Amino acid sequence: MAIAVEELRTLGVHTLIRVGSAGSFQKKLKMGEGVIVTGAVRDDGTSSSYVPEIYPAVSHHHVLRALEKAASIIEHRCHMGIVLSTDSYYGARFNCETAKMIELLKKANTLCVEMESSTLLTLGGVFGLRTGSILTIREEIGEDEKPVTQAGEIFEDGLEKCIQISIKALELIIEKDKLFKFD
């Protein structure tokens, strides 16, 4: 992710939206639904190469507003909130400390886990870029509190909607940029 941000920035790109997938931490998130990332817990290695972990990984407010409006236009259910970005999607299976951290994050209403947003959002802040993420739930919490992996048709339909939302959000940002210069 970092190399993409760095190289796109040198080409003059100032707005980036990640579209990806995530595993749910909360029962309210269902397969195929969207998550508009307001901020990310930085449990990755790359972003701390740029700034200390106390630096927040947050979405740019222009991108958040555009994604929220676009989700309404596309009519796709999306949640907004904080996610966990980690280098090891399944690491909690092997590491007790990671498993404890994840349980704490679930209690703190962290919505889901994914692997890219913290780096994108951190670098967006560092370089003054407009960045954001929209994720599609591909793994929801079942009745037994265990993850249900199901990357089938419901997920694919949700991913398609999230792609449409990101495109519409960029269109909305471009429209706004024509009226007001981004600084």
UniProtKB/TrEMBL annotation:
The record's annotation in InterPro entries points to:
Nucleoside_phosphorylase_d, Nucleoside_phosphorylase_sf
Nucleoside phosphorylase domain location, by residue?
8-166
EC annotation? 2.4.2.3
The record's GO CC annotations read: cytosol
GO MF entries: uridine phosphorylase activity
Q: Which enzyme class, named as a word?
A: transferase
Q: Which chemical reaction does it catalyze?
A: uridine + phosphate = alpha-D-ribose 1-phosphate + uracil
Its GO biological process annotations read: nucleoside metabolic process
Name the domain of life this protein comes from.
Bacteria
Q: Which PANTHER family match?
A: FI09636P-RELATED, URIDINE PHOSPHORYLASE
> Which protein, by its recorded name, is this?
Uridine phosphorylase
